[in-house]
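Catalogue entry: protein

Sequence with per-residue tokens
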Amino acid sequence: MIQLLDDKREISTIWFSGYSWTTNANPYSTEKKAEKIEVYAEPGLYCNMPWFAIWKEGSIISRIPASSCDEVLYKEVKDAKNNKES
């Protein structure tokens, strides 16, 4: 299994606390829209902890601890070769 901080796939949606952020372009969706969602490390007491950065209009507008998230969806990869661990 790939740990969240080591997973290089592009994130499309995260769900937490009754709402979500997405990079999908569905105009009828109730999800909040973002340009991109990135996972990164913040220092914790004993190790780095995963957080999500929500990007909109070229700036980070929100940071969310991964421990608050219920689910993470990744963008589909059409070519199976691109979905292998490197």
